[in-house]
Amino acid sequence: MDRRLRLAATAFLLAAGSAAAQDYPNKSIRLIVPFAAGGAVGAVARVLSTPLQVGLGQSIVIDNRGGAGGIIGMDAVAKSPPDGYTLLLAHSGITYMPGLYRTLPFDPEKDFEPVITAVTGLYVLAVSNDAPFKTFAEMVAYAKANPGKLSYGSAGIGSTLHLGTEFLKRAAGINIIHVPYKGAAQATTDLVGGQIQVMIGPAVAILPLAQSGKVRALAVTSLKSSPLAPDLPTVAESVPGFEVSGWYGLAAPAGTPKPIVAKLNAEANRALKSPELIEQFRIQGYEPLGGTPDDMKMQIKTDVAQWTRIIRDAAIEPQ
Questions:
Q1: Which end of the chain is more exposed for a tag (fewer CB within 10 A), N or C?
Q2: What is the pLDDT of residues 26-72, one digit of tens each?
Q3: What totals of helices (H) and strands (E) does the chain contain, helices first?
Q4: Please, what's the b/e burial string for 291-316 (b: 16 or more CB within 10 A of its CB; e: otherwise)?
Q5: CA–CA separation, 98 vs 70, rounded Å?
Q6: Strands of 177-180's sheet, edge to edge?
Q7: How far apart are CA 221 and CA 301, in angstroms?
């Protein structure tokens, strides 16, 4: 194809995309949540979709597609027509997958069109009340003096709680033993009971326990201090650059016209500025983010590289 034909083809595609965006949306939108109903991802979808469908003027139908750790629902979006009528409620776990699986039916960086990183979830580093330290610095010093003596709980191998603590181990230079559970709730119960001594857990679960004196919260794992826990220091104050947070956002199939992506992004950003929406998310332990599609694209690229390296360094065998 010579240069004139390429320019003509590009102009045609841009014009078609612009025309599609002007008419978009003219029917309901399907938002696929890649997990069974009732979980944290679904809760984010419900809160975000309410003002979003008002702004777009069409209903948003939440479609829970659980199975295979989220792969089934994600793959359904990747293989859907790129017309803006099928979206994914994406979460940070998608960036772990290249390191956790030998083969995937999709590429997190190539098979989706990022729309917006909507919210981030706060995580808290907590310890049992009988742990012989009261600050993060004291915990690190104790762990270095007693390698392998402390144990930490997670929601299972490959979970954010697992990978985040493996990241902490390497960043802080400590050796603590992993105890995987079949969910964060079981791990939290054993933290309260003292069967494990350390846990990185979601703020919405950990902070009430800390406030009632059942566990001791030492730090947040966000890069900056959080209004959800203003009295807690960040791990990054002692371990520069350390950050673990779970983010949630919207993505479309690769090839979705940019004007449609831009329209979705603009409406989502508008929704995320609503005081009512901000309050609803904060009750669940989330902080609104917002931003551009390119911001989300860079987030995915950076996270895939980081978590693939951490998974490899932790000698976690891909499935």
A1: N
A2: 999 999 999 988 788 888 999 999 999 999 999 999 999 999 989 99
A3: 11, 11
A4: bbbebbbebbeebbebbbebbeebeb
A5: 13
A6: 177-180, 151-154, 198-202, 123-128, 215-220
A7: 20
Cβ-based neighbours of 191, under 8 Å, separated by 6 or more: 126, 127, 128, 153, 197, 198, 199, 201, 215
Continuous H helices in the chain: 3-23, 40-56, 71-78, 97-100, 136-145, 160-172, 184-193, 203-211, 258-271, 275-283, 293-313
Tell me the C-alpha distance between 169 and 239, whole Å: 11
| 259: its two tokens | 């004007």
120-177 pLDDT, tens digit per residue, is: 999 999 999 999 999 999 999 999 999 999 999 999 999 999 999 999 999 999 999 9
Q: Is the dihedral of CA 75, 80, 82, 84 positive or negative?
A: negative
Question: Which class for 9: exposed (0-12), middle (13-18), buried (19 or more C-beta within 10 A)?
Answer: exposed
User: Residue 156's CB: how many other CB atoms inside 10 A?
Assistant: 15
Q: Which residues make beta-bridge pairs with 286? A: 121
* Rounded Cα gap, residues 192 and 231, in angstroms: 21
Rounded CA separation 167/242 (Å): 8
CA distances from 83 to 17, 77, 111, 140, 254 (A): 9, 11, 14, 51, 10
The DSSP bridge pattern shows strands 60-64 and 29-33 to be parallel
**Tokens 């201090």 — which residue?**
225
292: enclosing H helix or E strand: none
- Would you state the structure tokens that stand for residue 84, as one six-digit string? 């803006």
CA distance 268 to 174: 41
Residues contacting residue 79 through CB under 8 Å, at least 6 positions apart: 106, 253
Residue 32 three-state SS: strand
Task: Write a three-state SS string for 54-82.
Answer: HHHCCCEEEEECCCHHHHHHHHHHHCCCC
